[in-house]
Design goal:
It is an enzyme of class 4 (lyase). InterPro entries: Crypto/Photolyase_FAD-like_sf, Crypto/Photolyase_N_sf, Cryptochr/Photolyase_FAD-bd, Cryptochrome/DNA_photolyase_1, DNA_photolyase_1_CS_C, DNA_photolyase_N, Rossmann-like_a/b/a_fold. The chain has 21 helices and 5 strands. By secondary structure, it is mostly helical. Strands 3-2-1-4-5 form a 5-stranded parallel β-sheet, with helices on both faces. Strand 1, helix 1 and strand 2 form a beta-alpha-beta unit. The protein starts with a strand and ends with a helix. It binds flavin-adenine dinucleotide.
C-alpha cells in the first residue's frame, strides 16, 4: 500500500497524526504533498510574513522528509477549487492507494477537504482524516444537552478531564520504502505576497527551532503566571507562529507543561496558567466549529449586529500606524508593524481601544491583524477580537473598558516597552507616559513630535457605553 500525506498547517514530522498513521500503514512508500494557493490565501487575508514563514517551513519539512525517503511534491494552484482534481490526480499518478491528512476546521477548508475526499473516493483512493491541530477535538466536548460550550470555565473542566493521562506523543516515523519520485523544489517567492518587509531573522523556521524555543521556555514556565502580562519581558513562549503553522504540536506543548509540574498542574501556577492558554486555543477552535457564523464576519452575539460602528477611516488609519497619541496603544501597533507579532496584553489593549474608545467595527481590526500577523489564525484572532469588542462568546462585559493609561501604568510601569517601539518618547518621564495631562505637558516642555490624542478617552468611553446600552 502506498500512501499520500497532504500537509497543510502541520509542517512537522514529530507527533503528526496523519504522517504517523500513513507511515504505519504503508508498505510501498509514502509521498508528501503541499499545495500553494496564493489567490485563496490573499482572499483569507493571510499576511506576507505568515506566507513566507509557511514556505520556509515547507522547505525544512522537505529536507526532514527526504531523510526518511518521503518525497515532498508541490502543487501550485491559485485557489482551493482546483485542489480536488489536482491532489487526486497526483495521488493516482503516483499509484497511491490512500490519502492522509489532518483536519482543518475553517468553513472553506473543511468544504475543500470534503470535495477532495469525494474526488478521491471516485478514483478508489481511501481518505483518512485526523484531529491533530488541537489537543481535544472540537466536537468531542459537549454540554449535557449535547451542545457546544459557549462559556470557557465549564468547557475547561471537561477539557481537563479529557486530557488527564493522555499525553503520549506519536513517534516520529522511521525510514520508509524508497520510491523513485523526486521531491519538487520549494519556491522562495509567492505571487501576490511581498516579503521585502518581513524580518525572517525574528522567526527562524524549522522543527528544531520550535523545540529549542519550547525547551528555553520550559526553564521559566514556572514564572509564566507572573510575567505573561509584562510586554517588556520575554515571559511568554513566543511559540504562536510555530503552533499556527503546525511546526510544533499543541500536544508537545502540553507534554512539556506536564513535565514541568510533575504531572500535577495544581503544583505549578505557571504551567497551569500556560495550559489554560492552550485550552483557550482549543476553545476558540470549538467555537468556530460550533458557530460557523463567526468565521463569516458575523458576531457571536447576534444582537450586537445593531451597533452603529463609526466608519471613520482617518481614526482607523491613525490606529493602524500607531499614531493615536496614546503611548501604550501606539507601541503595540508599532510592534505589530515592525515584527508581525504583538504581545497578548497589547492585543487586548489595542483591540479594546479600537472597538470601544474609537467605536470602530471589530471586523476592521480583525482583518488588519490577519493582514500582518505571522501567527494569524482565524479561530484565535476572531475569538480575541470578539472578546475585546464584547460581541463574542464569554467576552469581556461591554462596560469593562480598559483605560490605556492604567494599563500602561500597571503592565509597563517604567515605560520600557513603550520606549522600545516609540523611541521619540525616550526622554519622557515614565510617570508622564501613564497620565493624560502630564504627557501633554512633557511633550510641550521637551518639544517632541508626537501626535495629539485621536480621541479624548473619557468621551470615547462614554460614547461606547451609550451605544452598547442603546442595544
Ligand atoms: C485581538 C486578539 C487577536 C489575537 N489573534 C491571534 C492570532 O491570530 N493567532 C494566535 O495564535 N493568537 C492570537 N491571539 C491570542 C494571543 O494573543 C497569542 O496567541 C499570544 O500572544 C501568542 O504569544 P505566545 O506564543 O508567546 O503565547 P503564550 O502565552 O506562550 O501561549 C501559548 C500558546 O497558547 C495559544 N494562546 C495563547 N493565548 C491565547 C488566546 N487568548 N486565544 C487563543 N490561543 C491562545 C497560542 O497558540 C500561544 O502560542 C489574539 C488575541 C487577541 C486579544
Amino acid at each position: 500500500m502506498r500512501a499520500m500525506v497532504w500537509f497543510r498547517r502541520d509542517l512537522r514530522i514529530a507527533d503528526n497524526a496523519a504522517l504517523f498513521h500513513a507511515c504505519q500503514s504503508a508498505d510501498d512508500g509514502v509521498v508528501g504533498v503541499f499545495a500553494i494557493c496564493p489567490e485563496q490565501w490573499s482572499q483569507h487575508d493571510d499576511a506576507p510574513a505568515k506566507v513566507q514563514f509557511w514556505i520556509q517551513n515547507v522547505a525544512c519539512l522537505s529536507q526532514s522528509l527526504g531523510k526518511i525517503n518521503i518525497p515532498l511534491l508541490i502543487v501550485p494552484t491559485p485557489r482551493f477549487d482546483e485542489l480536488p482534481s489536482e491532489i487526486t490526480s497526483l495521488a493516482a499518478k503516483h499509484e497511491c492507494d490512500a490519502l492522509y491528512f489532518n483536519r482543518e476546521y475553517e468553513v472553506n477548508e473543511s468544504e475543500r477537504d470534503d470535495a477532495v475526499a469525494k474526488a478521491a473516493d471516485k478514483l478508489g483512493i481511501t481518505t483518512h482524516r485526523f484531529h491533530d491541530r488541537v489537543i481535544v477535538p472540537p466536537d468531542s466536548i459537549e454540554t449535557q444537552e449535547g451542545k457546544f460550550y459557549t462559556v470557557f470555565t465549564p468547557y475547561r473542566r471537561v477539557w481537563d478531564e479529557r486530557v488527564a493521562g493522555e499525553t503520549e506523543l506519536l513517534a516520529s516515523p522511521k525510514k520508509q520504502s524508497k520510491t523513485d519520485i523526486p521531491s519538487d523544489s520549494v519556491p522562495t517567492q509567492i505571487d501576490g505576497f511581498d516579503f521585502s518587509d518581513c524580518d525572517s531573522d525574528l522567526w527562524p523556521p524549522g522543527e528544531d527551532e520550535a523545540k529549542r524555543r519550547l525547551k528555553a521556555f520550559e526553564d521559566h514556565m514556572g514564572q509564566y503566571d507572573e510575567q505573561r502580562d509584562i510586554p517588556s519581558v520575554a515571559g511568554t513562549s513566543r511559540l504562536s507562529p510555530y503552533l499556527a503553522a503546525g511546526v510544533i504540536s499543541p500536544r508537545q506543548c502540553l507534554a512539556t507543561a506536564l513535565n514541568v509540574c510533575g504531572g500535577n498542574l495544581e503544583k505549578n501556577d505557571g504551567a497551569k496558567t500556560w495550559v489554560s492558554e492552550l485550552t483557550w486555543r482549543d476553545f476558540y477552535t470549538a467555537v468556530l466549529v460550533g458557530f460557523p457564523r463567526v468565521s463569516k464576519h458575523r458576531p457571536f452575539k447576534l444582537k450586537t449586529d445593531a451597533i452603529r460602528w463609526r466608519d471613520d477611516e482617518s481614526d482607523f488609519n491613525a490606529w493602524c500606524a500607531g499614531q493615536t497619541g496614546y503611548p501604550i496603544v501606539d507601541a503595540g501597533m508599532r510592534q505589530l508593524n515592525q515584527t508581525g507579532w504583538m504581545h497578548n496584553r497589547l492585543r487586548m489593549v489595542v483591540a479594546m481601544f479600537l472597538t470601544k474608545h474609537l467605536l470602530i467595527d471589530w471586523r476592521w481590526g480583525e482583518r488588519h491583524f490577519m493582514n500582518l500577523l505571522i501567527d494569524g489564525d482565524l479561530a484565535a484572532n476572531n475569538g480575541g477580537w470578539q472578546w475585546s469588542a464584547s460581541t463574542g462568546t464569554d467576552s469581556v462585559p461591554y462596560f469593562r473598558i480598559f483605560n490605556p493609561f492604567s494599563q500602561s501604568k500597571r503592565f509597563d510601569p517604567d515605560g520600557d516597552y513603550i520606549k522600545e517601539f516609540c523611541p521619540e518618547l525616550k526622554d519622557v518621564p515614565a510617570s508622564a507616559l501613564h497620565d493624560q495631562k502630564k504627557l501633554r505637558k512633557a511633550l510641550k516642555d521637551i518639544d517632541i513630535d508626537y501626535p495629539d490624542f485621536v480621541v479624548d478617552y473619557s468621551k470615547g468611553r462614554q460614547r461606547a457605553l451609550d451605544e452598547f446600552k442603546r442595544i
